[in-house]
Amino acid sequence: MSSIPPELSYTAEHEWVSAPDDQGVVTVGITDHAQQELGDVVYVDLPDAGTSVAAGETFGEVESTKSVSDLYMPVEGEIVETNDAVADEPGSLNEDPYGAGWLVKIRPASADALNHLLDAEGYAAEIA
């Protein structure tokens, strides 16, 4: 059974999004379900900070021993930070997808950018 923290928001493409911090920045990663489906992650390709992205746009990829999967941006905005540590240690996506395995931090283009995302219950239904 996959872990689905209730305080996060989710996409049907298996990305999670944190609530905005006091600067309005959200953190994005892949879900526990996604990392389990991928298997052992061996490579992560992420964009540079300062990159503007649209919701639904591909913003990188994750390569595992089983497959290569695109990463889809859950919200429109600007990437303010990329997790370089996950690029150096891609296995952290398998070990801690909601912690050390985060991917990027984004400043959403609007305050309501997260309104279309799934809550934990909705995501659980999506993967059931």
TrEMBL record:
Give the sites modified to N6-lipoyllysine.
K66
Single GO cellular component annotation? cytosol
Cofactor field: (R)-lipoate
Q: Does the keyword rRNA-binding apply?
A: no
Q: What does this protein do?
A: The glycine cleavage system catalyzes the degradation of glycine. The H protein shuttles the methylamine group of glycine from the P protein to the T protein.
Gene name per UniProt: gcvH
Q: A biological process (GO) annotation for this entry? A: glycine decarboxylation via glycine cleavage system
Q: What is this protein called?
A: Glycine cleavage system H protein
Return the similarity comment: Belongs to the GcvH family.
Which PROSITE patterns does the record cross-reference, listed alphabetically? BIOTINYL_LIPOYL (PS50968), LIPOYL (PS00189)
